[in-house]
Amino acid sequence: MWRLSIFLLAASAAASPASIPSEPNGNLERRATPYSLPGNAQSDIARKEAIEVKRTQFTYANGIGGGPSSPGGLAGVALVAADSVIVNSELGAQVANETPDVIKASAAFPETAENFRTLDDYKKLYDDQWQNSLHPTGVYPGMLDNYTQDLTFSMERLSFNPYVIRRLIPKHDKLPFNVDDATICKITGGKNLRELLACGSLFYADHRNQKMLQPTVHYAAACDAYFYISPSSGRLLPLAIRTNVGRNLIYTPADKPSDWLLAKMMFNVNDFFHGQFHHLANTHYVTEVMYQAAIRTLSDDHPVLAILKRLMFGAFGVRPLALAILFRPNGTVDQFFGWRGSSAAVFAEKLYSSGYAGDVQNNYFLTNLRRRGLIDSRVGPPLKNFPFHEDALVIYNAIAKFMTAFVNSYYSSDGAVANDPELRAWIAEANGPARAINFPRRLKSRKELVLLLTHVAHLVSSSHHAVNTNQLITGAGSLPFNPSALYRPIPRRKGVKAEDLAKFLPPPAQCVKMLQSQANFARPLLAGTSRSLVHMFDDADLLSRLNEPTRRANQWFVAAMRARSAVVKARTFDARGLSQGMPFVWQALDPDVAPWSLTI
Ligand SMILES: *[C@@H]1O[C@H](CO)[C@@H](O)[C@H](O)[C@H]1NC(C)=O
Ligand SMILES: *[C@@H]1O[C@H](CO)[C@@H](O)[C@H](O)[C@H]1NC(C)=O
What CATH number is attached to the domain comprising 127? Predict the structure, then answer.
C-alpha cells in the first residue's frame, strides 16, 4: 500500500483538474454554444457527421476487470485515461489525508501487538484514531456500543446494504428453510414461521450464492436468514440464521448469546461482501453501459448528454482502479475477505448479467423496493422505519423535480421526446450493441425520460454512497460487528465461549491494514465542497450552456439539498436511544457530505 500511495500522490500532483480533457473531441469555442436538440436540417448535417466520427472513435472494449463493456477506440481509451486521472487524484488526496491516521494507528497497534481478548477490545481501534478518515461523522454513534442488539443487526439491512432483504409473499413464496415451531414461537411470542408467512410478516435475506466462490485463507459461511415484524413491538427483528456450510447450523435468538452474536457476525461477513460487489454491478456497470450508448448516439451539443456527462464525472476511472487494487491476486479482496478477488469479479458479473443488479427499469428506486415488498406492500404490516428509503427518497424527489424542469424546458410535448432522433438512437444503441439490460424499449413521454435520468442520478449518488464511499469505515465495515472475513473456521457445533469470540476476528495489525483500505474508499475531503451532492448540477460551464429554467431548477435543488443536509446533520438519538428506529445514527445520505458522482 505504501508504494501505491506514493504512486497515487505523484499522479495527483502531476494532474491538476484544469488539465483534464472533459471532452475528448472538444475545444474551447464549442463550450460557449448553448446545448440544443437536433432539429433544424441545416445544422443537423454537421451534427450527424460529428456523431458518426465520434462513433468510429468511441467503441466498446472488454469490461475492465470483467463485467459489461468498457470504452474502447481512441476516444474511449482517452476518456478512461482522463477519468483515471480524476479518480486517482481524489484517491491520492485521501491517501495523503489518511497517512497521519495510518501512522498513528500502526504505532498504536504494531505487528507485535497482543491480540484483542474481547469483542469490546476492538473499539480501541477507533479510540482517538482515524480522525481524518472518519470526518465528519466518526463511526456512527451507537455502532460500537449497541452492536449486540438484535435491532442493530436487523436495521443494518434497511440502511447500509438495503439490497438483499425481501418480504416473503403469502401463497407465492415457500419457506426457504424450517425451524421448529417451539423455538420460533418462543421468540415471536406465539407465531410459527408458516403463520408469520401467512400474515406477510416474514422477511428473508439470502447469501447462499456465495457458497460457489473461491475461499481465501480466511473463512466465510454463506448465510441465509429470516427476519420478522414483531407482533408486539412492530419492529423488524432477526429470527434465524442458517450457515449453509459445514454442519449447516441454524442459529436463533434463543441460542446462547455468544452463539447468536457469532451467527450475526457470520451473516455480516456475507453481507459486506455482497454490498461491495453488488454495488459495483448495480451502480457502476449499469450507468457505464447507459452512458457509453449515450456517448455513441447523442451529439455533444445534446442537453441530455450534457447532464449524463456531469453525472458520470470520472466514472470510467473506477474499474481500472478496482482491477489494480481489489481484484488482483493478493489484492485487497484476497487479503481481507473470505472469498478471492477473482471470485468477487465473477460474482459482480453474475449479479449484473442475471438482472438482479443489472436490470434498469426493474431497479428504479421505488420499483426495486416495491418488488421486494419493502414499501407499498399489499400484504403484511409496513416497515415501521426504513432509513434508506426515508433518506434516499428526499434526494430522489428533488432530483426528479430538477429533471422534470430540465426535460420540460427542452421538450414541449411527449411527442417531442418520442421523436427526438438522437434519443431514439440512444434507446436502440442501449438495447442493441451496448447490451443494457431491461432498458426502456422506447421513450414515449417526458415523464419516462425524467424517470430514466433520475435513475442515473440516483444510482451515482444515494444508491452508491449508502453502500460504499464513507460507509465502510464509518459503519458497514466497523469492527467488531461487521468483519469482512472470519479468522477461524465456521463452527461445526454450537457452544462457542464468549471469551473465544475475539479469536474469530483479525489481529490488531491486520485490522489497521483493513481500516486503511476502508479509508481509501472514504472521501471526507469532499464534504462541504462543490463535489458534494448539493452541487450535483451546480457547475458554471454546464449551466451556462443550459437554459434559464434549468438554471432556476438548479438553484432550487441547491437550496433543497442544503435544507436536507441540516436535517441529517442534526440527527441524534431519541429518548429510547434510537435514530430512525435504529440503535445507531446513520448519516450516509447527507447531501453536503456524499459526493454527486461515483468516483470510487
Ligand atoms: C501472494 O502472496 C503470497 C504470500 O505472501 C506469495 O507467496 C505469492 O507469491 C503472492 N502471489 C502474487 C501473485 O503476488
Ligand atoms: C445506543 O448507544 C448510545 C450511545 O452510543 C446510547 O446513547 C443509546 O441509548 C443506545 N441505544 C439503545 C437502544 O440502547
Answer: 1.20.245.10
